[in-house]
Amino acid sequence: MDRWYEAPGQPGSNVVYSRIRLVRNWKEYPFPSRMTKEQDSELTARLCESFKGIGPADGTKYRFAYLDRMTDLEKTSLVERRVLNRGIVKKQGTSGLILSEDESVGVIINGEDHIRIQVCDTGLKTTECYERAERIDDFIDSRIEYAFDRKYGYLTSYPTNVGTGLRVSVVLHLPLLSTWKNFNSLTADMGRFGTSIRGLYGEGGENFGALYRISNQKTLGQTEREIVDLVTKTAAELDQKEQNLRSDAGRRRSLARLDEVYKSYGVLKYARRLTRKDAMNLLSQIMAGINDGMIETKEPCSVFGLVLGIQPANLLRMAKKPLDKDELDAARADFLRERLPEIR
Amino acid sequence: MLCENCKMREATIKYVEVINGVKSEHNLCTHCASRLDIGQYSALFEGEFPLAELIAGIFGKTDSDRSRDQYAQVVCPTCGTTYEEFMKNSRFGCADCYSVFDPLIGDNIRRLQGSESHVGKRPAGHRITENGEGAQAAAEKADRQQSEKDAELPVAERIELLQSRIKGAVQREEYEEAAVLRDELKKLKEETGQNG
């Protein structure tokens, strides 16, 4: 079965994917940081038992895995594929993962909180993702008693998640908007309205691939619907701003842009060695090129799927042996040569 | 570069202040910077600079600086998390930590979240039914549990807790709740002979 990120993006939209995260805790146990080893394994086993039956109820196939029995490489590769958050890789003690076959729905058991429900999907589908997450939430709610407080709502390990426990994120591809002179003041303004923006990939202040994530800053004092609406509207607005800049640039310097896109394709398709930074920036050109109809692949292509594929842990996992930096860059070029579809 | 204040230690902190468009720059060592009164940021200069401390700095070490030391020893009876530990990791140990530390950090949660009360979804057991029974029953149950828990605390702490709750209620402009708490405090003081 195809993974959710392998679905091709929608032309004319710069939204790459939407993600919903809900955090919950079980009233009977202290939060994970204060649990004993015995409680760790007891809670994980009991919660997994409670989650049995979620598959038929949800109409999806799920598989279960113990995170503490996975290798660091497997876990890092799940972090790259957005299933796990980085914090959990180093966690000691029993914890579990319930993951749908297409990896769009994931529940982490006994991570930073007892339950972390995550739903991802391509495109601007925040509402659909939230509804799906809520169904899982209701399923568990009918089986265990959540830690809930009249004043503070759903109680969480970190007070930054308390209340709804909801984080709504939308990832956008903003190659032109992010180079726009007022981009910094735009992102600062967004903070005042309760959303934050940050680069998805990059090193030391430099962004690779022009992918940016918008998410809500606050989790308390707003209803779930309001939070979903806030992030969705902000994302739609940024998408529109990027689209305006792109059509403007397309009109003014169409040959220059066409040249950039085709040169990028050529390099990705024929290079023998690619650093992560170069590959990400070239894929960003292809993403924009396909979106603007400047280049057309013979088969539908998920550029974001390729972005995930060329991350180091995934390449190492596929190589099944340790690689040094040059070998990794070569493996990356091989991966892209093989996966990048032909163009018309 | 040496610290411009003590001229002894290496300056590791660059402090830029912009007041009404006038920019002034200071290069200081951590020691001198921590003595400098720059509000909540002072907390950051003590030792390392990790994110958790940054958040903890926003949480704990603001206007309640003076009272902080006396609270440092407050411990959650359920899970044993101390206020100090919370300040360090900005992470709670159990659900009860919220009510235990509420008088100390309620203001800071409000500052961080822009609100202090949940208005979203509720779990099945807390949902408001048509006649409001569900919510009321849950509320009463929570209140009962709360007062039972409070009753186990020593008198001095109970008085302190009530005082801070009154303060919180007044700040929220919930005067009815404040009045109830005030009466409770009065009664408690009379009972224990700590009047005046």
Entry keywords:
heterodimer, A: 344 residues, alpha+beta, Creatine Kinase, Chain A, domain 2, 8-stranded antiparallel beta sheet, two-stranded antiparallel sheet, 11 helices, B: 196 residues, mainly alpha, 8 helices
CATH superfamily of the largest domain in chain A: Glutamine synthetase/guanido kinase, catalytic domain
Q: Major sheet of chain B: order of its strands?
A: 1-2
Distance between the termini of chain A: 27 Å
The averaged pLDDT of chain B comes out at 74
Share in helix of chain A? 40-55%
Order of strands side by side in the largest beta sheet of chain A? 2-3-4-5-1-8-12-9
The major beta sheet of chain A can be summarized as: 8 strands, antiparallel
Q: What general outline of chain B do the C-alpha atoms trace?
A: elongated
Question: What report would you give on this structure?
Answer:
The complex is a heterodimer of chains A (344) and B (196). The two termini of chain A are 27 Å apart. Chain A has helices spanning 37-51, 54-58, 72-80, 126-141, 183-192, 224-252, 254-270, 276-291, 303-309, 312-319, 325-339; strands at residues 15-24, 62-66, 96-100, 105-109, 115-122, 148-149, 153-154, 166-173, 195-199, 202-203, 206-207, 211-216. Helices cover 43% and strands 17% of the residues of chain A. Chain A folds into two domains: 4-245, Creatine Kinase, Chain A, domain 2 (2-Layer Sandwich), CATH 3.30.590; 254-339, no CATH class. Chain A is built from eleven helices and twelve strands. With 196 residues, chain B is mainly α. Chain B contains eight helices and two strands. In chain B, a hairpin with a 2-residue loop joins strand 1 (13-19) and strand 2 (22-28). The longest helix of chain B has 19 residues, at 133-151. Chain A binds chain B through residues 25, 27, 29-31, 33-34, 134, 137-138, 141-142, 145-160, 162-164, 166, 194, 218-224, and chain B through 55, 59, 78-81, 89-95, 97-99, 102, 105, 109, 112-126, 138-139, 142.
